[in-house]
Amino acid sequence: MIKLYRGDVIEVIAYCGRDKNGNPMFKPRPVVLLHPVNKHTDIISVYCTSKNDGDDGNNIFVEAGSPEGIQMGLTKDTYVRPNSQLNLPKESFKRLLGKCPFMAKIMAIRERYI
After folding, report:
1. How far apart are CA 3 and CA 9, in angstroms?
2. What is the chain's Cα-based Rg?
3. 3-state secondary structure labels for all residues of 62-83
4. In sequence order, which residues have a C-beta less than 8 Å from that of residue 19 and are 6 or more positions away?
5. Cβ atoms < 10 Å from Cβ of 70
6. Which end of the chain is less congested by CB atoms within 10 angstroms, N or C?
7. How far, in Å, CA of 32 to CA of 44, rounded?
8. Tens digits of per-residue pLDDT, 24-61?
9. Closest C-alpha to 4, from 37, 28, 26, 46
10. Can you tell me the mean pLDDT for 2-29?
């Protein structure tokens, strides 16, 4: 596994619910790393989704075609949710997508609620 740094945007395979038979489902999802990741650590990140939950004061909207979206490697318009931490085993890592240009904003939102 490559060394990953705070602010990297990576694609992971993450749990996304259960199918009609109760079996767990997984899908690729972008996340923004909160801490570096290496062969000895797990992935600690914030959640990214294409769905708006209405919390515009705490979510960061990024258009895929914007300079920020391109820098992050996004293929869909995305809501970065700084208050939704996602912890995953390092084996969930699929690939590096890009770099998040607004880590200071993510950390400022997180600090308001810690």
Report:
1. 13
2. 14
3. ECCCCHHHHHHCCCCCEEEEEE
4. 25
5. 13
6. C
7. 9
8. 999 999 999 999 998 888 999 999 999 988 888 899 99
9. 37
10. 92
Scanning the chain, the segments in alpha helix (DSSP H) are 67-72, 103-112
Domains along the chain? 8-112 (2.30.30.110)
Tokens 């997984």, residue located: 26
Cα–Cα distances in angstroms (integers) from residue 87 to residues 42, 84, 103, in the given order = 7, 10, 18
Tokens 């770099």 locate to 99
Nearest to 63 by CA among 79, 42, 81, 45: 79
Which pTM was predicted? 0.91
Task: Give me the pLDDT at residue 3, please.
Answer: 87
Q: How many residues does the chain have?
A: 114
| Residue 97 Ramachandran class (φ > 0 left, ψ -120 to 50 alpha, else beta) | alpha
Q: What is the mean pLDDT of residues 95-113?
A: 94
| Per-residue pLDDT tens over the stretch 62-85 | 999 999 999 999 999 999 999 999
Token pair of 83 as six digits: 């208050």
φ, ψ of residue 62 in degrees (nearest 5):
-130, 120
